[in-house]
């Protein structure tokens, strides 16, 4: 697999769900994916609130902190600020063909659905759509208004995969981590990346029936 085919853009916004983002980033890095990371200011607030994780505001300092935490190189994990317009993700000729926004706030959802490119994150999503790449958005909001649903429908009609952070319970989760892994596993499945976080439906159930 070429290095370009292993590249992926991961965007993290201010919706609740920081554990999903961290687990997904961890899994992508473990699989030697080259990650271009975009994090909104609101996302840093959520990280501090949900994980007690104080990340620096400056992209370089944030990148250094994350690379140290995950023990990866600068080649494998790059962090960009919201106005770094010369970064690869801003151009259709250089951006990865795959992008995940996890979690995705309804504000970001609206901006992308209406073609706004006021930040690098919004521009990166716009690039993936126009280049007919793979964009996965993971909204985390409840209840959903008609506006939210209309924006999701608009994106789905453009080929975007809308994957709400709605874990199932048929795998009998024993912890919050199990619920997080359920959602992350589904994202990895759609990216066609191997995962052992959760068995696919029918496989472990078939084995259980055979043993009974």
TrEMBL record:
FMN binds at residues 14-16, 40, 105-108, 140. One of its GO terms (molecular function) is carboxy-lyase activity. Dimethylallyl phosphate binds at residues 170, 186. The keyword Membrane does not apply. Residues 7-191 form the Flavoprotein domain. Its EC number is 2.5.1.129. It comes from the Bacteria. It catalyses: dimethylallyl phosphate + FMNH2 = prenylated FMNH2 + phosphate. InterPro entries: Flavin_trans-like, Flavoprotein, UbiX-like. Keywords: Flavoprotein, FMN, Prenyltransferase, Transferase. Pfam families: Flavoprotein (PF02441). It is an enzyme of class 2 (transferase). Coiled coil: none annotated. Flavin prenyltransferase that catalyzes the synthesis of the prenylated FMN cofactor (prenyl-FMN) for 4-hydroxy-3-polyprenylbenzoic acid decarboxylase UbiD. The prenyltransferase is metal-independent and links a dimethylallyl moiety from dimethylallyl monophosphate (DMAP) to the flavin N5 and C6 atoms of FMN. Belongs to the UbiX/PAD1 family. NCBIfam families: PRK06029.1, ubiX_pad. PANTHER family: FLAVIN PRENYLTRANSFERASE, FLAVIN PRENYLTRANSFERASE PAD1, MITOCHONDRIAL. This is Flavin prenyltransferase UbiX. The lineage of its organism: Bacteria, Pseudomonadati, Pseudomonadota, Gammaproteobacteria, Alteromonadales.
């Amino acid at each position: 697999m070429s290095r370009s085919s292993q590249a992926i853009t991961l965007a993290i916004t201010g919706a609740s769900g920081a554990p999903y983002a961290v687990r997904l980033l961890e899994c992508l890095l473990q699989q030697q994916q080259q990650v271009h990371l975009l994090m909104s200011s609101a996302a840093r607030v959520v990280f501090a609130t949900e994980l007690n994780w104080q990340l620096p505001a400056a992209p370089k300092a944030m990148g250094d902190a994350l690379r140290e935490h995950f023990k990866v190189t600068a080649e494998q994990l790059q962090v960009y600020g919201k106005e770094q317009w010369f970064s690869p993700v801003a151009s259709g000729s250089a951006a990865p063909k795959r992008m995940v926004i996890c979690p995705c706030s309804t504000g970001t959802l609206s901006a992308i659905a209406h073609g706004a490119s006021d930040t690098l994150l919004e521009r990166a999503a716009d690039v993936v759509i126009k280049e007919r790449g793979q964009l996965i958005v993971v909204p985390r909001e409840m209840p959903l208004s008609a506006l939210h649903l209309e924006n999701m429908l608009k994106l789905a009609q453009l080929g975007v995969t809308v994957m709400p952070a709605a874990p199932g319970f048929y795998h009998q989760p024993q912890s919050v981590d199990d619920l997080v892994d359920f959602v992350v596993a589904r994202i990895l499945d759609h990216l066609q990346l191997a995962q052992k976080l959760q068995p696919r439906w029918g496989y472990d159930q078939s084995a259980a029936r055979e043993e009974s």
